[in-house]
Specification:
seven-stranded mixed sheet, four-stranded antiparallel sheet, extended, alpha/beta
Length: about 475
């Protein structure tokens, strides 16, 4: 994905200004030149480090034996400070690129553009060679069915990837993901921890927010999911922004050991590690040849040290077990979020947060209500006023027409029929109806997505917390 690419560097106004320190000893014996050079160097030092540094270090020269001062003086060179900006987006599909395939309104898929490969669906067969070199957003016709089948090639984004990825677990959808990113206050170059990698949908959203030099540490207790997530991140060009850890941050294995007094045998321990089938174990052995796997010691925690992360996101069945480790790993005044489908999980998590120094705790539930927006042709209101007779005039007119000889029931029926006849005449009267006009209208979808999860946010205290494993 484009946000994983390195920043581009170009010489800007600062770099072209050529401001730097000049060696005073290389100017000869002319006192005027040496005086001008001395004043220019003082101005450069003041520009970079301020007046305090200049006044206390105006006589400093390089090679004066003070390593710290020499390192500081070496930074006074504008040619070192190029402008950095995001690289331009790639408009053409290249071999190996991830492409999101739009098949229909509710049906998205993905492919990695591979020469000579074929993508097949109900619309026909599509050759990857037709994808390569084409711009994102283009329409591709099938090779069979007389070219009647078609699809669109879309540029991958975290939202489109969440709709097309292979589901290994339930995912965090785009509405909840946007709320999480906003309330965690994630910004570029942050260090973020995520427990519960799952299918990697939320990981891509975080990676886009912390690029270009941030770091995401994502934790997953299932070894197969860790391996697949690593391959996906590498294939999407995001490997330098993320580290996948095979680890249970809750430390359930250690808690069971304490509860049972370390009286378990090796068979029980292997059963707690995930009950891997023979086929799964074979796949793990094959993948371990390509990548080095870290072992879970069962103690829990993030293993990053104290106050190492700016924000932490927990997507766990028992998040309250990870809260003590999060309090130790998060920076003072950092933000934490717990994603829990049930209110009972949220209640226990809030209690654990209060116990370990978190404050400003807030739980929200986001519901998505979508609308159709389209133009509709409607009649404009009448422009002429209709004369509406008073009740007394209507009564006198009825008496005159009936001569006062009809029964009350017959009078009511006749009055009702007359009113319907008058309404029909007014509706057919073209003079009272204005011309039709197209109006932009909105109406909600018939169905609204139900409950997804409760999002609990909190802020860490401004004091450091002890390590639960110590």
């Amino acid at each position: 994905m484009d946000f994983g690419r390195d920043m581009s560097k170009t010489p800007g106004i600062v770099a072209k200004s050529n401001i730097r320190l000049v060696d005073e000893t290389a100017l000869g014996d002319d006192p005027l030149d040496r005086q001008v050079c001395l004043k220019a160097n003082e101005a450069a030092r003041e520009l970079f480090f301020g007046k305090d540094f200049t006044s206390s270090s105006s006589s400093l020269k390089q090679d004066d034996g003070n390593e710290a001062d020499n390192n500081a003086l070496n930074l006074i060179d504008c040619s070192l400070y190029d402008e950095q900006h995001l690289p331009p987006a790639r408009h053409l599909i290249a071999p190996g690129d991830l492409v999101v395939v739009f098949e229909s309104f509710n049906d998205l898929n993905f492919v990695y553009a591979t020469p000579n490969a074929i993508f097949s669906n109900r619309n026909g067969h599509f050759h990857h060679n037709d994808f390569i070199g084409k711009p994102y957003g283009c329409k591709i016709r099938s090779k069979d069915n007389e070219g009647l089948g078609f699809l669109y090639l879309l540029r991958p984004t975290p939202e489109l990837w969440a709709r097309s990825l292979p589901h290994r677990t339930q995912i965090v959808h785009e509405l909840d993901a946007s709320m999480i990113t906003h309330y965690l206050e994630i910004s570029p170059n942050m260090t973020v921890c995520e427990s519960g990698t799952g299918s990697g949908a939320m990981s891509h959203v975080i990676l886009r927010s912390i690029a270009p030099r941030g770091k995401l540490h994502t934790y997953e207790f299932n070894k197969m999911r860790v391996i697949k997530a690593r391959k996906e991140f590498e294939g999407h060009g995001l490997g330098h922004l993320v580290e996948c850890h095979h680890r249970d941050v809750c430390g359930k294995k250690n808690l069971l050991a304490v509860k049972n007094g370390d009286g378990r045998n090796e068979k029980d321990q292997s059963a707690e590690e995930g009950n891997l089938t023979d086929s799964t174990t074979t796949d793990l052995d094959n993948n371990n040849n390509d990548m080095e796997e870290e072992e879970d010691d069962g103690k829990g925690g993030f293993q990053l040290g104290q106050a190492a992360a700016h924000a932490i996101f927990l997507d766990l069945p028992e998040p309250w077990l990870a809260v003590p480790h999060a309090a130790y790993t998060i920076k003072p005044n950092g933000r934490i979020c717990s994603y829990s489908p049930c209110m009972e999980q949220t209640q226990r998590t809030v209690q654990a947060m209060k116990k370990h120094g978190f404050h400003s705790i807030r739980t929200i539930e986001a519901r998505l209500k979508e609308y159709y927006v389209d133009e509709y042709e409607m009649e404009t209101p009448p422009t002429t006023l209709l004369e509406i007779p008073t009740e007394e005039a209507v009564s006198l007119e009825k008496e005159r027409q009936t001569g006062g000889n009809q029964k009350p029931k017959e009078k009511e029926d006749k009055a009702l029929n007359d009113e319907k006849s008058n309404n029909k005449k007014r509706s057919n009267d073209s003079s009272n109806v204005g011309p039709t006009k197209k109006i932009l209208c909105a109406r909600p979808f018939a169905h609204m997505r139900g409950h997804t999860a409760f999002l609990t946010f909190a802020t860490a205290s401004n004091t450091l917390r002890p390590d639960p494993n110590s």
